[in-house]
Amino acid sequence: MNIQTTEHIKTKNKEELTSALILFNDEVNTFDYVIEQLIEFCHHDELQAEQCALIAHFNKKCIIKQGKLTDIKKLFGILSDKGLTLEIK
């Protein structure tokens, strides 16, 4: 039987809940292209995708998704392949 300590469970759950995917502004991708990718892969609605693109443009970065680290890593791979500049925090 595998017994996990309460501290281990708290740490694991905290990591899963606090992972974030950050989009950085770049001079390569158009607003429309970034918006399309956020809608398709992050499941943002059009307004949310537009707001994220604008925030990244003016603030140089924007958190576009939060969740489990495994889910964030998968999304990072997909969007990186699409040419977006990203970081996981």
Description of the structure:
This protein has 89 residues and is of the alpha+beta class. The protein has a single domain, classed as Ribosomal protein L7/L12, C-terminal domain/Adaptor protein ClpS (Ribosomal Protein L30, Chain: A, 2-Layer Sandwich), CATH 3.30.1390. It contains 4 helices and 3 strands; from the N terminus they run αβααβαβ. A 3-stranded antiparallel β-sheet has the order 2-1-3. The model is unreliable at 1-9 (pLDDT under 50).
Give the overall pLDDT as a whole number: 88
How many helices in DSSP terms?
4
Please mark out the parts with pLDDT under 50 across 5 or more consecutive residues, or reply none: 1-9
Number of domains: 1
Task: Find the CATH topology.
Answer: Ribosomal Protein L30, Chain: A
Instruction: Provide the structure class.
Output: alpha+beta
The fraction of residues in strands falls at: 15-25%
CATH level 1 class label = Alpha Beta
Overall morphology = globular
Secondary structure elements and their pairing?
Layout: H1 6-18, E1 19-24, H2 31-42, H3 46-59, E2 61-67, H4 69-81, E3 86-88
Antiparallel strand pairs: 1-2, 1-3
Short summary of the structure?
This protein is an alpha+beta fold and 89 residues long. It has helices at residues 6-18, 31-42, 46-59, 69-81; strands at residues 19-24, 61-67, 86-88. It has a three-stranded antiparallel sheet with strand order 2-1-3.
